[in-house]
Design a protein that fits this description.
With 238 residues, this protein is an alpha/beta fold. It has a single domain, classed as Alpha-Beta Barrel (TIM Barrel). Helices cover 38% and strands 28% of the residues. The radius of gyration is 16 Å and the shape is globular.
């Protein structure tokens, strides 16, 4: 079942969007992220994508209280990422009810830990492949790893990773359309489910991503397009 997943990005305890991951280009959409989460659930979302941008940048999650409250308040599954870089924190996220934990920087810098985590938690772990200029970025998208995304993804699958979230950073928050080619290439190369993220600007974009479902693209995360009013969640779900 193809999933359309609203995103909530947390920064300084607010619900925000960045442009191309740039912390200087931030728009605050709400000072009450819990309310926003409830709204997406009420409109029919079947899953929520939650990112701690403070944590992604510093490696120390700063919005745990809000994350905990959102998970506790909603009935739908919530996947969480941003600064989750050690085993105790992963355990904590799963213990408070996160359906999935998304690893980004850890997957680039600490493959041994990824192997350990995946052997314990299996499909409850996903890896974010955030790509800029053809290379995987890390540390809140602030650093380039110099790694080729397909090569890194294939290594991750060998380590036990069973799902990827793919973002083309140049398109994120820009409403310029998804990177369909990159999505398809990743799904075909790894043969594990891939969730699209970044660039969605219209219902047509969502349908173009959905058309890749047969290759293994299982869902689409939407942020800026929902918050700017470019698309309405209820229309995408109808």
């Amino acid at each position: 079942m193809f999933e359309i997943i609203p995103a909530i990005d947390l920064l300084d305890k607010n619900c925000v969007r960045l442009e191309q991951g740039d912390y200087k280009k931030v728009t605050i959409y709400s000072k009450n992220p819990v309310e926003v989460a409830q709204k997406w659930e009420a409109l029919g979302a079947k899953r929520l994508h939650l990112v701690d941008l403070d944590g992604a940048k510093t490696g120390i999650p700063a919005n745990l209280d809000i994350i905990r409250e959102i998970i506790k308040t909603l009935k739908i599954p919530v996947q969480v990422g941003g600064g989750i870089r050690n085993l105790p924190l992963i355990r904590e996220m799963l213990a408070i009810g996160a359906d999935r934990v998304i690893l980004g920087t850890t997957a680039v810098n600490n493959p041994n830990l990824v192997n350990n985590i995946c052997s314990q938690f299996g499909a409850r772990i996903a890896v974010a492949l955030d790509v800029k200029g053809g290379k995987v970025a890390s540390n809140g998208w602030l650093k380039s790893s110099g790694r080729d995304p397909i090569a890194l993804a294939k290594e991750a699958v060998k380590l036990g990773v069973k799902r990827f979230v793919y973002t083309n950073i140049k398109r994120d928050g820009m409403l310029t359309g998804p990177d369909l080619e990159g999505l398809k290439e990743l799904a075909v190369a790894t043969k594990v489910p891939v969730i699209a993220s970044g660039g969605v600007s219209s219902k047509e974009d969502v349908e173009a991503i959905r058309a890749l479902e047969s290759f293994g693209v299982e869902g689409c995360i939407i942020g800026k397009a929902l918050y700017s009013g470019a698309v309405r969640l209820e229309e995408l779900l109808s």
